[in-house]
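call fold(seq) -> tokens
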Amino acid sequence: MSEAASTRVALAKSTTSRKTTRRHPASTGTTALLPSLAPLLHEWVPRQRWFAGKGQPVTGFSLVAATEILPLDTAGTGPGLLHLLVRVHQPSARPAQAQAQGDCYQLLLGVRTALPQRLAGARIGQVTEGPLAGRTLYEGMHDPRVADLLLERFRSPGSLGPLRFDRAGPVPPGLSPRVLDTEQSNSSLVYGDALILKIFRRVFPGINPDLELPLALGREGCGRVPAPVAWFEAATGPEPLTLGVLQPFLRGAQDGWQLALAALAAGRDFVPEAHALGRATAEVHTALAAALPTPPLAQDRTRHLVAGMVERLEAAAQAVPALVPYVPGLRTAFDAVAALGDTGGGWAAQRVHGDLHLGQTLRDDDGFWSLIDFEGEPASPLPERRSPQPTVRDVAGMLRSFDYAARSHHPWNPEWAARCRTAYCEGYARAAGTDPRAEPELLRAHETDKAVYEVLYEARHRPDWLPVPMAAIQRLAAAPA
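ret:
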């Protein structure tokens, strides 16, 4: 029997046996399972690109849930698929309760008695004790047979232990899987250039915006965002954890960052593209405003917004001494927003993308722009990412992205970035009916907040890139109040 055929047989047996009690190596020793895997996970987890706790040692693991999606084939060399939700504990300056809880990560672990050579690069290690003793553990997403099984689960929605698979449209069978090796905070599988499955690695209670917002936009008929075809989640507490989303794969589309760099390298303007991208952003904002609540940014919420910006500025200045001389000038951007709020000025707020930049956009061969990755800033708490914000937050992110693109090219071309920024705002205004530059205080404050974040990020992770946001810091600090 072929591997694909045996996978279908195993899936059928697993689906049939959901109503019965199964006893397999992993499920019969749940208590001993995680301690037996911990030595391997201690070495493997911190090295993964999606692990958010780099720079701090891992002090332990605790099991949230363990599910056998595919029971281990103990009679042969076929794989098992073990789905784990694990809390990773690390020393932290956070409150004791949050520190004790730890961040929750989703692991899809393949288990085989012998690992084929083609999967050698996915190997995690050999388990020496516990219910999986003697088996080899590996990153399951790299195994085509395991990836096929995940797609089959979406074709047959329902529950498996704490996991629930749902779908909103047809899922065709027989699509060849491949791992998309371009993401960092998550992992993705592409099926036959037709569908893409995003697996969220660090998961939180509550619906993930990357599922919530595309579903809402799909109900509004907004074609700028691929609508979810299927998804799965885990019920481990009062609120479910969104684990993954299956969406159409925009075959042949190129991301905006690469297109911008190509234009710079060729000495071409990017004005028409920036203008069209502004229109696309405005259309998405308009659809989100129609689909979801739009509470006003009243005085108390304005104070909260400004307080967060000031707090981030002060923290960044403590970590990056180069920022200190500019703090007074940067504070004027936040003070201006606070002053308008105190005098009764207010702004509209709504759901937004939350982490918009050129790398979160795709353009097809016909010049049609799409927006992707609505998860928001991964480092921010989920309630914050789901809260209504002024739309200029997204606009500011894109304006900073044009600056980054121009700075990445040598020699630096500030005029190129300025033309893109102007074109983007004009395109946005044409579609939305309001120009984001008509609220200069709010736009400057959000640009400043974004640049401060960039300074801290680059200082910690890419010191060679620090001059990019520092150039914006100098400009924004000198801007008139």
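The chain has 14 helices and 18 strands.
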